[in-house]
Write a structure and sequence with these properties.
Blueprint lengths: L1 H37 L12 H6 L7 H13 L2 H10 L1 H12 L8 H18 L8 H20 L4 H21 L5 H8 L3 H11 L35 H19 L3 H11 L5 H8 L3 H23 L2
């Protein structure tokens, strides 16, 4: 029986989501036609609405039909009426999803964000109190955004605290490198961040577990359409002659040589032995004269430094 109930709920949700998509498509077509007639251009990632319009919009509940729907839903709790309200406000989900997508990697599908946002809209409709005089759009937008963010966080296996620490360290390394013209020491990084050297090295140890790149992630500068190029698309036959790739490889080698030469002597030795000589951490620790954990921290710091330099190089 539980399986049948779950199937029924899933079917109902799928039907509702289908109605929402149809409603959104209809609204988009109507908006495009109106804009075409007036000569106006859409804003906010093609949504046709901006934040000021959302804040200054008249409450949807001031409309006769919608006002009656709210009154009926709050008095009866009808699922049918609730679904009509959700379908009515469906374009708001697409708008919020488009706004959230602006700050996300190209690999994130906006449709997935909208799907999560529907859950937030459903919660907003269920909890909204029209009698309090607030605009539903403003209330629902916060709920929709929260649902999308919660869904994104549930997909991330790395704790938010580690992500935050990684960003702070990268920003600090980049700032100090610009100021000093060289790779900063752990002591300088710690002083800039206002923490101890031990804390900085502990952060390196944590961050070393998340320095991965997805082969399916779209490269910077490409869009989210089917024409976007991923890292996987850049893998080519190593036996094939590619002049452009040869030039890029040479420039990258020159960049890495310059970056490595700017590292302190011990870090330069450690990363050279690890990546160029193929030694393991135990072997490197004997050569450099520090623990394996310290070697791992040094390598992590070097990789983060290179990545910040590469990001600045790609933006030029």
């Amino acid at each position: 029986m539980a399986g049948r109930a779950d199937f029924a709920v899933a079917s109902a949700y799928a039907d509702l989501y289908s109605k929402v998509n149809e409603r959104t498509a209809t609204m988009n077509q109507a908006t495009a036609a109106a804009l075409s007639a007036t000569g106006d251009a859409p804003t906010a990632a093609g949504s046709g609405v901006d934040d000021e319009d959302l804040d200054n919009a008249e409450p949807a509940s001031s409309l006769g039909p919608v006002d009656r729907l709210w009154a009926e839903y709050k008095s009866t709790g009808s699922t049918r009426v609730r679904d009509e309200l959700i379908v009515h406000y469906a374009p708001l989900v697409k708008y919020v999803a488009a706004r959230v997508a602006i700050g996300l990697p190209n690999s994130v599908d906006q449709e997935d964000l909208a799907s999560a946002g529907i859950v937030g809209l459903m919660e907003a409709v269920a909890r909204f109190e029209p009698d309090r005089g607030f605009k539903f759009e403003s209330y629902a937008a916060a709920r929709i955004r929260g649902a999308i963010i919660d869904d994104l966080r549930s997909l991330d296996w790395v704790p938010r605290s580690v992500r935050s620490q990684a960003r702070k360290v990268e920003e600090t390394l980049s700032k100090l490198h610009d100021k000093l013209g060289r790779t900063p020491t752990d002591e300088e990084v710690a002083e800039q961040m206002g923490v101890t050297v031990a804390k900085v090295r502990a952060i390196y140890s944590k961050v070393s577990t998340i320095l991965f790149a997805s082969l399916d992630r779209l490269l910077s500068g490409t869009d989210k359409s089917d024409s976007g190029m991923s890292l996987l698309d850049t893998l080519v036959d190593t036996k094939a002659e590619d002049p452009a790739a040869a030039v890029e490889e040479r420039e990258m080698k020159e960049f890495l040589v310059k970056a490595i030469s700017g590292l302190p002597e011990r870090e330069r030795t450690a990363i050279t032995l690890y990546y160029y000589e193929g030694l393991n951490l135990a072997e490197i620790s004997k050569v450099v004269g520090v623990s394996q954990a310290r070697i791992s921290q040094m390598n992590t710091k070097s990789v983060m430094t290179f990545r910040s330099l590469l990001n600045k190089r790609s933006r030029r």
